[in-house]
Amino acid sequence: MPHREPHTAPLDLSLxxxxxxxxxxxxxxxxxxxxxxSQPTVTTQMRSLEGQLGRELFERGPRGVLxxxxxxxxxxxxxxxxxxxxxxxxxxxxxxxxxxxxVAGPAELLCTRVVPALAPLTAQGVRLRVSAGLTxxxxxxxxxxxxxxxxxxxxxxxxxxxSVPLMDxxxxxxxxxxxxxxxxxxxxxxxxxxALHGAPLVTYSDxxxxxxxxxxxxxxxxxxxxxxxxxxxxxxxxxxxVAGAGITVLPRYLCLDELASGALVPLLTPEDPPINTTYLTxxxxxxxxxxxVLVRERLLRAGRTW
Length: 306
Known about the structure:
By secondary structure, the chain is of the alpha/beta class. The chain folds into 3 domains: 13-91, Winged helix-like DNA-binding domain superfamily/Winged helix DNA-binding domain (Arc Repressor Mutant, subunit A); 101-161 and 283-303, D-Maltodextrin-Binding Protein, domain 2, CATH 3.40.190; 169-274, Periplasmic binding protein-like II (D-Maltodextrin-Binding Protein, domain 2), CATH 3.40.190.10. 44% of the residues lie in helices and 18% in strands. The protein contains 12 helices and 11 strands. Strands 3, 4, 5, 6, 9, 10 and 11 form a 7-stranded mixed beta sheet that branches. It is elongated, with a radius of gyration of 24 Å. It starts with 12 loop residues before the first helix and ends with a helix.
């Protein structure tokens, strides 16, 4: 957009409200859903605001729009006042209990770590709504305003979301004691993947994402073959391997008890195991819900111990 002289009239608050929704959601369509507006209306309002400012605010990207530096600066100036105004408007000037905090993430991590860590907050009046899913769909929901916080298995790109490291997952190759004895951990250490040939592989998806990464990182080879069992939940994978179905690769946090009790045996202890960092992600700007801050701080403290 060519530079134009900005208008001197005061900026329309409704345009700024729409602008902030677009900046936070990263999409004209998602902003429209949040505000109850059609996508063409959002587009028209943003063009009007750009005309008033004489600056381009958003550039089209592969998955929505990307804010310009002008948009980032404007958002930093108007977010807090608009959020404060929205709180007063939504509550009609009266004090109301905070809304539930919507938290999303991988099902296994939510059930084994996140929910137990957040459970004591109910004594402070915090209400939680927990949703499970895959990272891409959860981040889309976060941009669209369906969630307050999302745990992502990779760092989100772009400037529509902010993220901080939450925890590191170490992946471990495991089997039941019977399969470990049959394969021989010493032989696995000496012969690598050749020692695992013929052992049934249990995983949560047919494309073997965790196992493929382990083979590439530890053995330096591409994993070939098919899974004997697929279960779309790592807790089901864990249960199958404990029951003697074969071998698998799991996050260590998920099988700590089984490793300690001997129900699972590590087949290899590499000096440099595969590590994956998960990220606590949210929309930019301060939330007007004080309980979102409580939940976020609690998760970051707990994550340091996981």
